[in-house]
Every structure is written in C-alpha cells, then in structure tokens.
Write a structure and sequence with these properties.
It contains six helices and six strands. A four-stranded mixed beta sheet has the order 1-2-4-6. The chain has a two-stranded parallel ribbon with strand order 3-5. The longest helix has 15 residues. The chain starts with a helix and ends in a 5-residue tail after the last helix.
C-alpha cells in the first residue's frame, strides 16, 4: 500500500522494492531507487498483528535502520548469494557514485515510544549521526496518525 498509494509506484516496482523482507533483510523491508528524483528510499516497517493505532513501538526499528545503513556502507560484509547484494550494489552506484540522496523511513502501525531509551530518543540520536556522517541522508518516522495523510 505504501509503495502504490503513497509513493505512486507501479505494482511491479513495489514488488521489486519489497524483495528483501524476511530472514537476512538486515533492516531493509523496502529498497527503491527513484532515478527521476535522484533518491534512494529505504523503509523498515513494523506492525502489530491487530494494527492497533495506539500500540507503542520501541527503538528497535531505528536500530534496524542503523544496521541497514551500516550494511550498505560496508559491502565486504555481503557474501555471494546474499539477498542484499543487489541493494548494496545499487546503493554504491547511485548514492556513492551518482550522489543520490537517501531517505530512511521507519514505518509503524502505531505510535513511537517517547522518553529515555525510546524510539523518539533513538531517532534523534540517529538523525544527529546522519548529519555528521552521512550527508544527503534523512530519517522520518511515519506512524499510524500520518500514514494515510502524509505523502512520503
């Protein structure tokens, strides 16, 4: 739904962008290179089984996005046959060589936890790290309150 209704992608592009879900995805549920906008979109998503919009989500999703970025920037950690090899190659080509921007999105079916050690605190720390270490990278949390009203 996010890919087709919010990002306005074709169904085939969405299927391709979602190919990393499951074991071995290292924090990447959705990886898409938008050549027209010159950007890479990386989404990690978490949801409760009942999709309760009042559910609170902790910092783990932000840690997964950190892991994804670490993997993408360290191609030596990827072995032959690893499902992420295509993403690492695309990231290297489009971000590092062609200077595409990178949008990291934490997509949750509830709301982010707040306070010490929370999703919000971890996201703020990650945003600071992005500013210092990863030019042209941004982080956004899209929660249930924004999911249907915000255009990514």
């Amino acid at each position: 739904m996010v890919g087709t209704h919010i990002l306005n992608l074709r169904e085939n592009d969405v299927r391709s962008a979602c190919r990393f879900q499951g074991a071995g995805e290292r924090g990447i549920d959705f990886f898409y290179v938008d050549s027209q906008k010159k950007e890479i979109i990386i989404i990690q998503a978490e949801a409760t089984s009942d999709l309760n919009p009042n559910s609170s989500f902790g910092a783990s999703i932000i840690r997964k996005l950190r892991s994804a970025l670490s993997t993408l920037n360290n191609p030596s950690t990827i072995k032959e046959g690893d499902p992420l090899i295509d993403a690492v190659q695309d990231y290297t080509e489009y971000h590092q060589h062609q200077k595409f921007s990178v949008r990291l999105i934490a997509l949750i079916s509830g709301r982010p936890s707040e306070g010490r050690g929370s999703m919000v605190a971890e996201a703020n720390a990650f945003k600071n790290d992005l500013i210092r270490n990863y030019p042209n990278h941004t982080l956004k949390i899209v929660d249930s309150g924004e999911l249907f009203i915000v255009k990514l």
